[in-house]
Amino acid sequence: MKAFKILIMILAIGVALYEQVSEEKNIYIMIAAIVVFMYGMMQLSAKTPSKNQDKDEEDAD
User: Fold this and answer.
1) For residue 31, what are the CA distances in angstroms to 7, 38, 48?
2) How far is CA 35 from CA 13, 16, 29, 52, in A?
3) pLDDT (tens digit, 9 = 90+) per residue, 37-60?
4) What does the alpha-carbon distance between residue 51 and residue 6 come to, in Å, rounded to a whole number?
5) Over the stretch 10-24, which tens digit does the pLDDT of each residue have?
């Protein structure tokens, strides 16, 4: 599933870059591609543990 999300994010960035260099820019396609990319980043980074997680647990004691 992680590989699928990364593939979708790469595809979204590719679409956004393609729209950026095209003659007739469609802002709605660019916005949709950026939203898909940001949502994918949010999903992937939510599973990454915090670097300071151990320190936060010690401070709670």
Assistant:
1) 18, 10, 26
2) 10, 10, 10, 28
3) 999 889 888 877 777 766 655 555
4) 22
5) 999 999 888 888 888
**13 Cα distance to chain centroid:** 9
Helix (H, G, I), strand (E, B) or coil at 21: helix
Name residue, tokens 């151990």.
54
Please write down the HEC assignment for all residues of the chain: CHHHHHHHHHHHHHHHHHHHHCCCCCHHHHHHHHHHHHHHHHHHHHCCCCCCHHHHHHHHC
Characterize 43-54 residue by residue with b for buried, 16 or more Cβ atoms within 10 angstroms of its Cβ, and e for exposed: eeeeeeeeeeee
